[in-house]
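Appendix B. Worked example

We walk through a single record from start to finish. Start with the input: the chain for NAD kinase, Micavibrio aeruginosavorus EPB, length 252.
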Amino acid sequence: MRIHFTANDTDEAQDAIRTLTAAHGQTGVADADVIVVLGGDGTLLETVHKTLKHNKPVYGMNRGSVGFLLNPYRPDNLLDRLQGARAITLYPLKMIAKDKNGRTIEALAFNEVSLLRQSRQAAKIGIALDGVERLPELICDGVLVATPAGSTAYNFSAHGPIIPMSANVLALTPISAFRPRRWRGALLPSHTTVRFEILEAEKRPVSATADYTEMRDVVQVDIAQDNTTPFTILYDSDHMLDERILREQFEP
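Next comes the structure step. The output line below is what the pipeline stores for this chain.
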């Protein structure tokens, strides 16, 4: 099995990549059968972004802090673990954002697309789903759309729901909503297209971020699941992501 190893710059991750490349060698991304990531959740997501065009499965081992999306780090029996790993295919969100100067950018997000106020004043954001206005004005610090894989991250910190991997839904979650006070967000079918319109954009500027890509002073943001760009993450059979997401809902 040809393996491409990549690691973040912490001492733990660098020690791990030296150990594993000495044992298994190092193959270029284009020629590898699998990419092994050593680091945390951010390192894994960054690697997926960088290597998406190569369409290689990614197997992560935790050498970071949280490591929710990764397997435990064990340097022994790596080939056996890779051969016995189970694959999960995920689909990112595609963000199309337009700023006040008419500039447009597109970016993918594997966890979430989030909008955040840029100034001391709360943002005012209108929300439409599949072309139908659902919330004419949300006054808030921000709002986000999260995938099931990302539902345990920023979405959960903002009191959004944890979503089982097989649910085929997205989380639409406000961040510190002021009005309407009782609106806690919504669960959306995964095929839904979400449009955010920034109200009073000059007075209340807002930024939009898709994982690592940020655009400031946005006026309109469209978000939809991108079914043309699947990516595969590998998990040990006793450490499956769907089981851990389910278990997370019962953590004290």
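Two observations about the output. The first strand starts at residue 3 and ends at 7. The two ends are 41 Å apart (CA to CA).
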